[in-house]
């Protein structure tokens, strides 16, 4: 499962220094002869706009999975999984809200204020599952982790604005992932709306609407005035029909983590999207290096449920730790097996982290010697993935020509010893957002004089880092 950086560069057909740069950008300091694992390689490849595939499933017993796939005898129709993409302000969020409101009955509406990262609606007896994080960041992040869960993309284009840079990006992402697009031409209630102009612009990207003899479905809608929502959903179902989406619901469950967080009272919470099989309360699962036995399960309306089949998102309780969004989960025989496999993965992760730390010292030293750019490396730990993304975005935006702010590592959960050793090696500041260092980490941080800062408000964190940057620019006296 490991490959040296040099071999990896050869495989990609890219210069080694470019690959090393991509690795650094994804938070891994690696030398030319260092071995990296698939996940690390995939991340770096994504930075180079290449997507890579594993030649065979990783060890640890999950390979049975593929053999099982051949035995997926009882394939039955499953609901499509849909992501909404498009340029900022074109109405992605409004559309997701309009769909949710239009299709959820009064009696269910109570719990639905709480988003779990995905929701399922029913139209004419057919289900559709929507991923609740609009935009292509989540889509790309998932793909970078090797998880492609979207079957269909609804591309929102505002009729008064037309195709904009992020629309184009979204189209490219869909093409790269080979995911069909249904175009929602939004804001048709506005006086400046020009549906034909949008269709014209779309043709420049190879998306020729049906009325014009192409095969791209375009549906005029208004998320605000609630026009065309049902038409749009019918077209999504039609597209799904053509894709003949199927899954076996009679096997051990597998799927992907959509969202995760640490709930103060209930412990680690994760939204899982089941992709194959059926997940039941009491099942044992392995998720990355986390495991657990499902104590309770809730649907997207916060209703307690006992089982969930393919394409259904559920929030689960009972994991040992907060899993990473984008990670796959696998149902395994029992909790003991799950724990053993999780431990094995943890050990592997730890040894990799140590070897990358060792290399980083040398690499950083040479970087400092040759480079003029100053860097402010940061490690972020937080209670939920969403805060990490928000904080990372705001901090990295502080970068100037003179100082680059770089988040070299991030994760959900308390600040641990490994975070501190990474910070020591990379001279990084550790930021905890709604989380604190555990006892060992606090002791190590004091010994190694690592700067650990904890915050509850993003603005305060940003303000402090900005101040630190000004400090870095001051001449030493
Ligand atoms: P996002 O950034 O793509 O998620 O866009 P939002 O859903 O936040 O919408 C951006 C703005 O456009 C908001 O002020 C919405 O109220 C407005 N908006 C969204 N859909 C419509 C629509 O169909 N008609 C009109 N007139 N305004 C809309």
TrEMBL record:
Domain annotation Tr-type G: ranges: 77-246
Keywords tagged on the record: Cytoplasm, GTP-binding, Initiation factor, Nucleotide-binding, Protein biosynthesis
UniProt keyword GTP-binding present: yes
A GO cellular component entry from the record: cytosol
Keyword Protein biosynthesis: yes
Location of the protein in the cell: Cytoplasm
GO molecular function terms listed in the Swiss-Prot or TrEMBL record: GTP binding; GTPase activity; translation initiation factor activity
Source organism, top-level taxon: Bacteria
Residues that, per the record, bind GTP: 86-93, 132-136, 186-189
Region G-domain: start-end pairs: 80-228
Function: One of the essential components for the initiation of protein synthesis. Protects formylmethionyl-tRNA from spontaneous hydrolysis and promotes its binding to the 30S ribosomal subunits. Also involved in the hydrolysis of GTP during the formation of the 70S ribosomal complex.
Similarity-based family: Belongs to the TRAFAC class translation factor GTPase superfamily. Classic translation factor GTPase family. IF-2 subfamily.
Record's protein name: Translation initiation factor IF-2
Record gene name: infB
């Amino acid at each position: 499962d490991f490959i040296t950086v040099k071999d990896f560069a050869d495989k990609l057909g890219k210069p080694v220094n470019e690959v090393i740069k991509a690795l650094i950008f994804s938070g891994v300091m690696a030398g030319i002869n260092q071995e990296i694992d698939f996940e690390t390689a995939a991340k770096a490849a994504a930075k180079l706009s290449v997507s890579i595939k594993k030649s065979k499933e990783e060890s640890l017993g999950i390979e049975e999975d593929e053999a099982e796939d051949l035995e997926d005898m009882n394939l039955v129709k499953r609901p499509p999984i849909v992501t909404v993409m498009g340029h900022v302000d074109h109405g992605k969020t409004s559309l997701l809200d309009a769909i949710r409101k239009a299709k959820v009955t009064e009696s269910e509406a109570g719990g639905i204020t709480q988003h779990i990262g995905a929701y399922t609606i029913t139209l004419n007896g057919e289900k559709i599952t929507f991923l609740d994080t609009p935009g292509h960041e989540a889509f790309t992040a998932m793909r970078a982790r090797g998880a492609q869960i979207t079957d269909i993309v609804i591309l929102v284009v505002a009729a008064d604005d037309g195709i904009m840079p992020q629309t184009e990006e979204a189209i490219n992402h869909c093409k790269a992932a080979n995911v069909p697009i249904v175009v929602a031409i939004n804001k048709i209630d506005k006086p400046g709306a020009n549906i034909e102009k949008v269709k014209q612009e779309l043709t420049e990207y190879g998306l020729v609407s049906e009325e014009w003899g192409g095969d791209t479905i375009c549906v005029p809608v208004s998320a605000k005035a609630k026009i065309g929502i049902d038409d749009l959903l019918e077209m999504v179902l039609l597209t799904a029909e053509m894709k003949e989406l199927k899954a076996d619901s009679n096997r051990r469950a597998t799927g992907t983590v959509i969202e995760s967080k640490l709930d103060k009272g209930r412990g680690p919470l994760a939204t899982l999207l089941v992709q194959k099989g059926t997940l039941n309360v009491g099942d044992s699962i392995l998720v990355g290096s986390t495991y657990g036995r499902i104590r309770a399960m809730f649907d997207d309306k916060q209703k307690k449920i006992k089982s969930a089949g393919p394409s259904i998102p559920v929030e689960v309780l009972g994991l040992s730790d907060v899993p990473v969004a984008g990670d796959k989960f696998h149902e395994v025989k029992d909790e003991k097996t799950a724990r053993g496999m999780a431990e094995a993965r943890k050990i592997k992760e730890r040894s990799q982290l140590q070897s990358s730390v060792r290399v980083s010292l040398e690499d950083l030293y040479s970087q400092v010697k040759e480079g003029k750019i100053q860097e402010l490396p940061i490690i972020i730990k937080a209670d939920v993935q969403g805060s990490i993304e928000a904080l990372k975005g705001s901090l990295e935006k502080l970068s100037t020509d003179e100082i680059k702010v770089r988040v070299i590592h991030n994760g959900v959960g308390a600040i641990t010893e490994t975070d501190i050793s990474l910070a020591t090696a990379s001279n990084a500041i550790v930021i905890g957002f709604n989380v604190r260092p555990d006892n060992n980490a606090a002791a190590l941080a004091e010994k190694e004089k690592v700067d650990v800062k904890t915050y509850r408000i993003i603005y305060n964190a940003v303000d402090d880092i900005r101040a630190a940057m000004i400090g870095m620019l001051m001449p030493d006296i």
